[in-house]
Amino acid sequence: MPIASPAAPVTLEGFEFRVLHVPLVAPFTTSFGTESVREVIVVRALTSDGGGWGEIVTQADPLYSSEYTQGAWDVALRFFGPALLDRGSVAPEEVATILEPFKGHRMAKAGLELAVLDAALRAQGRPLGEYLGAVRDRVPSGVSVGIQRDPAALVENVGGYLDEGYVRIKIKIKPGRDVGDTAAVRDAFGAIPLQVDANSAYTLADVDTLAELDRFDLLLIEQPLQEDDLVDHATLATRLTTPVCLDESITSAKAATDALALGAASVINIKAGRVGGYLEALAIHDLCRDAGIPVWCGGMLETGIGRAANAALAALPGFTLPGDVSASDRFYLRDIVTEPAVLEDGHVRVPTGPGLGVDIDPVALEDFTVARDVIRR
Ligand code: SMG
Ligand code: MG
């Protein structure tokens, strides 16, 4: 369903951008690297009535995708912010169209759109969940577990998350750390809901190894091949019984349509940052729902800003699999919002306050800020 009731436009007076360095509770290792500090950009839309917050989910290095923090900072301050400020009065539904002439940089676009959306909804007293069409007041919470020192350490880690109540486990894999790690988790915990994420670390030449994962009855394998390998993913899907899920490849609703037409995926991970915003994420949700394709909400180690928005998105009816919508303390000892998301009975609550429904902790924000800039009309 498209937005039932669009938000009223806001009058933009400026944008404030900050690069934050937020320490992680423990290093997070994927097939492409390890991070110990989350470098992220938060955006504040400055409006006459209170403003709104967004988050640009790039990482410091272009390893997950081609976007990275300094690139996003440059394009947001040099092109996107000024293009929106030139319009003066902007409705959230217009942001993507205004920014469309600029190619790519979807994470940066998503961050600006979210700031405008939060400002507009706060001004109207409307929660983001209600605006997007949420049908749940809490969402089941899965957790993404990084590659550990060895399979025994992985089992210990996963056990901790299961004890906390997480309802689905995702483990990161890479060549050499796939079948053994998955077997260790299955052996230790039996028939728990389990899936794996390769972050594009394999090629079609690895099909025999990937087919060995079939015996573990996984919910899915996420992004085994490169971002632009749609045809190879379709070929791989014919060789596996494990459902293939795409993450990095799904950069837009068009990419999702193409992937489904090719048979490259039977499940889709929706991340608003990766696809250019929560409205494009909604469009992907809608087209997958029409096609009978299950979706789930991915994560980019968001702070409390993006995490609140992800919980609202994950509450839409087509999100039939638990997402990477974990509690704040999965990654952070200290968040930048006053009421960080907590795990309650394996679920995270969908905020009900206006806009994102979370308030910024100004002291934490200041403490984590390593760069700040403001542009005005
Ligand atoms: O936010 O819970 C989270 C992180 C989930 O594993 C996660 N994200 O490919 O799905 C993914 C990764 C992208 C971030 S890797 C640093
Ligand atoms: Mg992924």
Summarize the structure.
The protein has 13 helices and 14 strands. By secondary structure, the chain is α/β, with parallel strands linked by helices. It is globular.
Would you write up a description of this structure?
- Helix 1 packs across helix 3 and helix 5 packs across helix 6.
- By secondary structure, the chain is an alpha/beta fold.
- The chain is 36% helix and 22% strand.
- The protein has 2 domains: 133 residues, Enolase-like, domain 1 (2-Layer Sandwich), CATH 3.30.390.10; 220 residues, Alpha-Beta Barrel (TIM Barrel), CATH 3.20.20.
Number of helices: 13
Taken from the alpha-carbon principal axes, the silhouette is globular
Ligand inventory reads: N-succinyl methionine, magnesium ion
What order do the strands of the largest sheet run in, or round the barrel if closed? 6-7-8-9-10-11-12
Query: Largest sheet, if any?
Result: 7 strands, parallel
Report the helical percentage: 25-40%
Using the coordinates above, name the CATH class of the largest domain. Answer: Alpha Beta
In terms of structural class, how would the helical and strand content be classed? Answer: alpha/beta
Q: Report the strand count.
A: 14
CATH T-level fold name of the largest domain: TIM Barrel
List the helices and strands and how they pair.
Layout: E1 10-30, E2 33-47, E3 52-56, H1 69-87, E4 89-90, H2 95-99, H3 106-124, H4 128-132, E5 138-140, E6 142-145, H5 151-164, E7 168-172, H6 179-189, E8 194-197, H7 207-212, E9 221-222, H8 230-239, E10 244-246, H9 253-262, E11 267-270, H10 272-275, H11 278-291, E12 295-297, H12 304-314, E13 347-349, H13 362-368, E14 369-376
Helix pairs in contact: 1-3, 5-6
